Hints:
Structural class: alpha+beta
Amino acid sequence: MFDDQFDYVAHVSAAGYEWIPGESFRRESADPGEHVTGNLLVPRLSAGSEVARAIQPDHQDPALFRDFADLDTSDPDSLLAFANQYGFLEHGERGRTEMRAELRAEAFADWVWHIDALRCVIRVHDLVQEGDLAALAPSMTWQPAGPGRPNGRWVFHGYPGWWGGHRSVFTMPSEWPADLLSAYPGLPPPQQPGLRPSSYPVTMDSPTPGDDLRLVARAWLYQVVTDTIGHSVNVRLNADRATGKARLRVIPSSLCQLLWFQFSRALIAGKDYRRCKECRGWFELPPRERDRKVFCSPACKVKDQRTRKARVAELRTGGRTPKQIADAMGMDIETVRAWIKSTQAKGK
Length: 348
């Protein structure tokens, strides 16, 4: 079981970030003349741009992975706003531009891949939680045994990926290998985002075509998490401050890894999440408040109440009766009357 919180510390540029064209960036390890297509995220160049502020994202927002997956990948500004708050997803590729001798950059296409990937696993997880087999079925197909495959297997369709196993535009080749081109005629040029593999085989013990799709989906989710973060996990053995007993802690190495660990924690603990009624951000539902908590914080609850009080006053000024206001806003009439009385008292 994971700890309640991950102690990952993100170092965010105090000056913020900006998008630059990939053609202007030269990787430190690249051949002369080689460049990356598409926009790149870099720390903004301004006075004090070398200064960074330290934050602990998991302590601030245990449901950050859901907010990240909700980012609009067609809107670079939404990704930029997230970066300005939480920093790089990983550690950036070292390089330079004509204006700057040294800086790090992350590709817009890489951000899109990670958003699409988390969005996909979250959707599958939610469908499993809801028991919606009809919605899961189109993504899961059974492949019977055949040439080169002695046993049947389940296959998941629709997970975002890169051809040839590349998940970053910085690691993709300048040209596709001849064997890949022969296998996939008409393959788009390297570094083009949004490429999709045809299938993602699910690893299961003794699978059968009659397996419960929820079990197949869970096996696939566990496999994806392992494939994504299982190769670079940092752990630390230290003493628990409260008990003095030894404990083994998982320390994410990047913001991206933290987001996947947050998702893993949700899988293991069966956590539920809800959108805040006011800010629309996601928050974790405490077990004892799952049926009634609708705000992520006291501040959002107060803001919502102020907004509704102002609306009640507006409708009353417009000639609506307390009964009409209560019906229109889905409130009980006694609360409406109390708010009207309070507003009138303040106006005297």
